[in-house]
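Worked example 4.2. Below are the chains of a multi-component assembly; read each line carefully before continuing.
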Amino acid sequence: MPALLVALLLQAADPAPPAVAPPATTDTPVPASADSPEEIAKDSARDLKDSRYYNKPGATRADYDKDWQECRLIARGSRTPGGSPVVVYNPAIISPAAAAAGGLLGGLIAGAIADGETRRANRRSCLMYRGWRVVEVTDAQEKLFLTMPDPEREAWFNRMLGAENPDGKSVTRWNNDFAVTPALAAAPPPKP
Amino acid sequence: MRLSPFILAALLATPAAAQLSVTKPTPLELPVTMAPHQGALLVAFRRPDGWSAGKSGTIAFARYDPARHDMIARPKDAKKNGDTNTYWIQASSKDRKAALEYRLMLVSAGDYVLYGAAPGPGGMVMNSFCYNSVTLRVNAGEVVYFGDVTTYIAAKRADGGPFYFGMPWSWHPDEAKAALASQPALQAAFKPGELKGGASYSCSGQMMTAYDLPDLPRLPPLTPEEKAKIAAEALVAPPRQAGPNTAQTPILVPVR
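Applying the procedure described above to all two chains together yields the following structure tokens:
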């Protein structure tokens, strides 16, 4: 089930330019949490890996940390995308679909929700919806990072976070295809 | 037990009882009467081309509070407490051979948000358009048209990109109204939905994404004061926990 969900999530992202401009980052302060800015920076660095990183032209590391933390809270279900905290716990909020389905199917959905892989995928889609692009680095860059001292590598990623033309072999951004049809090839003839 | 068509028609003409979760459409072939607090949501599944021909799909709506930018989840013990609101609407296509099929869902009056959509059979909506979706209001006595959706599964893109999966929206209110011709009362109550974008809500885990319809008017974002008010309410509300909160008082949302 988690693998299926991740596959569906990746469907919502492709290298095509977005049909709709992603919204600007909210100006809401991150709700009070136990996480200090240093801890958030340490955690958000996990998504600046040797093989890929996030990029948004003009953005700073502080912008990234702020969006990363907000998206983490959204993916956890403890904050709404509109910027307000979730008021009360209610199982039907966790998944109305699961609540409606009930039984075994509902249990399977609930299990998928609790899965960390799903949360990470949703954090990624949240960041991409906010305009962050995922850049895959080249094999040569990846090898270079292995020999690079940590501070130097971190400085490289921090510089690339806001670059207009990020270094890498591919750039993936959020798209709105699910709601608006892209150009399709000619359809096959109907079956007799 | 066999029901004659006459008895069946008489039963179906009776106002349907309020349902917390509406998953079965009301047949348009027989007379339909709405209860005083009810309205109806009309959606269509359209198959305009070879890629969508023969494809099925499901769309789901949740009750919504536009003032808070959040969905209204079904309260615990809603049924036991006599709650008459609809919190979940799920409409599935049925006739895969039809170029166009309508689904009339009788619901309690209120605001709803497009929650998610699932291309393919099965009827289980696994995604959540919580980052940004579409909201519309259904008033009592109204038949509110949401629009048409078209299911695409593994369609080939013109640019040779990855297979396309989606359920894009389209707007055909004249056809929708004409589809109610056999029911003058419903046709008189027909109203094209006043759709608004920018409707986000609490994300619920499965596949979080957005359903952006770019040309729609949008809900105004929450002001800092509104956010502060909601945050203050959160402080006095029971904390989130990993199980049902038995102390939580069910919220009976009045039908406005």
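Take a moment to check your reading of the output against the notes. The mean pLDDT of chain B is 85. Residues 5-236 of chain B form one domain.
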